[in-house]
Amino acid sequence: MVIELGGNPSFDFNGSITHLVCEQIVRNEKILSCISCGLYVLRLEYIMDSYKAKKWLDPEDYEWGNPIFMKKYQFTLERLECLARSSRQWRIELQEISPHRRAFSNWRAVLYCSRRRFVEIQRIIINGGGIAIHRFKFR
Questions:
Q1: What is the CATH number of the domain that holds 71?
Q2: Which residues does 124 contact at the CB level (< 8 Å), separation at least 6?
Q3: What pLDDT, in 10s, does the model give residues 79-133?
Q4: Can you give the pTM of this predicted structure?
Q5: Residue 24 is part of which domain span?
Q6: CA distances for 51 relative to 4, 11, 23, 111, angstroms
Q7: What is d(CA 110, CA 136) in angstroms, rounded to the nearest whole number?
């Protein structure tokens, strides 16, 4: 469907991504990286409805944090509702500052966490334009 509409689907996070489409919003590395880049985080209906219309529809209507959608959707957890709302707020905020600005631009972070968590958090910060090192390398 995406290819038929002229899109270029990717299952990996890379610099060419402009939108993330997900069936459920969850707090994971991919979604947090997209939020830190100010990308659209959209519901699956975006692809389905666009395919039916035979053209890409306005992504704002399908954004997880869209205020109209937020009023009628029941989130199972309050933190997921906050994540959905934040995804839209960050996209708008970063677009207003600069189209190339990211959430962690100019950040230099030392992370105090386990090595396993460090790898995930570091990638989110790097994708968001910052630099992160582990506390053991900071001396």
A1: 3.40.50.10190
A2: 29, 32, 33, 36, 104
A3: 999 999 999 999 999 988 887 889 999 999 999 998 889 999 999 999 999 999 9
A4: 0.86
A5: 1-102
A6: 8, 19, 16, 43
A7: 9
